[in-house]
Design a protein that fits this description.
about 190 residues, alpha+beta, 6-stranded antiparallel beta sheet, 6 helices
Length: about 190
C-alpha cells in the first residue's frame, strides 16, 4: 500500500506541475493580449484633423520631412493596389526612390465598412509584396516589421513603406498632438 501511495503522490505532483506550467503559459498569452488591447485603446484616443486623404498624406510627409515624393494618379495607384477607381479617386499615394530604396505613403479614405475591408486586403497584399521584394533584394538579412507602418480607422487606412516603424510612429504621435478631431483607430500591424 505504501508503494501505491508513493506512486499516487508522484502522479499528483506531475499533474500539478503540468497544471502550473499550463497556467503560466495561459497567463503569458493573457498578458500579451492585454498589452495588445491597451495599445489599441491608446490608438483609439488618437485624433486626426484632416478632411481628405491628400491632406492626411501631406501632413505625414511634412512630419517625416519628405519633400521629393511624387503623387501617383489613380491609374498608377491601381497598379500597386488593384482597387476600384472610385476608391482610388479618394486616395493619395506618394512614392519616392531615395538612395535606391522605395519609400511610399498611401492614405485611403473609405466611405463605408465594405470599402474599408477592400482597402485593408489590398494594403495587406501590398505589404506582403514589399516585404517579399525587400527580402529577395537583401538576401543576407531577413526583413521583419521594421520598414513599414500600417494603421487604420473607420475612415482612413494609412500605409508608409520603406521608413522605420519607430520613426513613422513618432511622426504620427506628433501629428495626433497637433490635431483635435476624434477618430477610432485600430492597429493592423
Amino acid at each position: 500500500m505504501d508503494r501505491r501511495r508513493i506512486v499516487f503522490n508522484k502522479r499528483t505532483v506531475v499533474f500539478l506541475l503540468l497544471f502550473l506550467i499550463l497556467l503560466g503559459v495561459a497567463a503569458s498569452f493573457g498578458v500579451n493580449y492585454i498589452r495588445r488591447q491597451t495599445v489599441k485603446e491608446e490608438r483609439a484616443d488618437r485624433a486626426y484633423a484632416v478632411n481628405s486623404a491628400q491632406e492626411f498624406a501631406g501632413s505625414i510627409m511634412d512630419k517625416l520631412g519628405f519633400s521629393d515624393m511624387t503623387l501617383l494618379s489613380a491609374q498608377q495607384s491601381g497598379n500597386y493596389y488593384a482597387l476600384p477607381s472610385e476608391i482610388l479617386q479618394a486616395a493619395a499615394v506618394y512614392t519616392s526612390h531615395a538612395d535606391s530604396a522605395l519609400q511610399e505613403i498611401a492614405v485611403f479614405q473609405c466611405a463605408d465598412e465594405k470599402e474599408h475591408n477592400l482597402v485593408s486586403r489590398a494594403v495587406d497584399d501590398r505589404v506582403k509584396a514589399f516585404v517579399s521584394a525587400q527580402n529577395s533584394f537583401n538576401n543576407s538579412e531577413r526583413l521583419t516589421d521594421d520598414l513599414y507602418f500600417l494603421e487604420s480607422n473607420g475612415e482612413f487606412v494609412i500605409l508608409v513603406l520603406g521608413t522605420p516603424y519607430e520613426q513613422v510612429s513618432a511622426a504620427m504621435a506628433n501629428l495626433v498632438a497637433d490635431n483635435t478631431t476624434q477618430g477610432a483607430l485600430t492597429d493592423k500591424k
